[in-house]
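Hi X.,

You mentioned you wanted examples for the new student's onboarding notes, showing what a folding record looks like when two proteins sit in one file. Here is a clean example. The first protein comes first, with its sequence line followed by its structure tokens.
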Amino acid sequence: MPDQVLLRVTNLKKYYPVKSGLLQRVHAHVKAVDDISFDIYKGETLGLVGESGCGKTTAARVVLQLQRPTEGTVLLNGQNLTQTPDKELRSLRTQMQIIFQNPYTSLNPRMTVGAAIAEPMQVHGIAKGREASERVGELLEMVGLNRYFAGRYPSEFSGGQRQRIGIARALSVNPSFVICDEPISSLDVSIQAQIVNLLKRLQQDLGLTYLFISHDLRMVRYISNRVAVMYLGKIVELGTNKMIADNPMHPYLQALWSALPMPDPDREKTRERIVLRGDVPSPINPPQGCRFCTRCPSVMQICREVEPPLRELEPGHQVACHLYD
């Protein structure tokens, strides 16, 4: 694994104020992302997995500084993005891009495909006119589309084709770091595999680094070098894709794996299913101690009182759980 850190996130928090009353006073905060830290190495894919509402997309937006964090730092190539003014941050947008979740809403229906892909190049002064048009054609072919599609509108394309256009738009400014924010969740299963394989090929050809966000544990394992598991704003386990699959240590991750069907019918019949009771607590008022203590089948008294730190139990494998104290 490469040892050059491209992105370093340290103690990142994002709280949203909850206001009420006539004077709209703040009486609580939604703790969407609550003190997470991780590194992403150059050329690798870090998968970020968790159920809906756990803070994955918020973390992505804060990393890109589309929203400013409440606390914490984000370093891209050693530069602290959280302390970079907006004017200077704009020039850094060419280094980091995002592929959005919904290909039906992320493209302007009034702009042709070519104009949508060319717009970032024009905004950042990378290419204009004929040069931009030629670059648009190259990008369309790079993502598996015909260069003559540039004059068409998004409504003329399927969901999978639109997502390819979104990928081409993200790559138009030659970024080194791309966040894939659930890019396959709204697509058919057969198309999902095509998009993920396209992302893997582009990573090899262009030397890209990904943060791949999804709630599909198996797809995250397939595309990622390492995987971070989030629950209620916290990272509860982080390790290589093999560690996460072969030796899940946190009870939440064990429950996620047990919910997935197995292709072997004999193993499917004999395996033990872990059923979680109750609902995910509110991020406005998370439980004291471990965030997972209200649903954990192995809960102990210390879990309800002391928050477990994320610590390394074996080389490259970090877990936040009192079971291993």
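Then the second protein repeats the pattern, sequence line and then tokens:
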Amino acid sequence: MRKILSICILTCLCACTQKQIPMEQTQPLQENALAKVAGYVITQEEFDEKAQQLDPVFQKYITTSIGRQNFLSYLISEKLLEQEARFKNIEQDPEYQQEINTLIKQQEEQLKRAKEFLLKKKLLDELYSQGITYVSEEEIKNYYKKYPYEIKILQIILNDPQEAAQVMNAVKSTKTQNSFKEAVVRFSKDPLAKQNKGALPPFIPGEYLPEIEVPAANSASGQVQGFIQTPLGFHIIMKVGEDKLTYNQAKERIQTILEKQKLDDYLNSLKDKYGVEVKDENK
């Protein structure tokens, strides 16, 4: 929008660089007025507001005397076009009305989303200030003592238990990552399987699904386990390894884990307070 506006202004400015702006008025302009068009007063405040919408190069240009004069000429031209459009009753044009109604609906939806976001943000800020979701340094250190590492796994995700059992039988004796990755590409229903070959970003316990984290944490590198049911489907996993993290490497991630856990506890209390019903898609 800024670019389009700047192009329009450039066209206007080039056309009137050496022209003076007509300022014939029957009465003197108000103190804060720069011009008047059909009774509408263009103020310094409006001039400055419109100028803020320009690209920086044009903002710099209108600080000059000729630039200021030409930009004011552009604003006058805009008001003249607007006045003529109203005189021709274009506001009643069906196509114009349809476009305006579409814009109104879009703005109403944007305002609704903004209100919802700010409402939730205000609550989250209050929960933090009240200590409900606040995480202390001591809590982070205690968590780090338990989990000073991140886990790497490969996984196959399947849609039904029978298929998962068949694939598990086929891969349970797999010994190498390459052979497991081949099985990922062949069997996994994960849309990203062909790209990532089953590799997840390394996770600290608490960052992924608990159904996966527990067996992964308690298994040796290279071990295949499954099948494990989660909300995503049926998983067959191979642990690739563990990497020790320094406290500074893990601190921010652990803080996020603990904040989420506390927020989840709060949300569970709200479920009990307000009630939640979820449709069973299997029925």
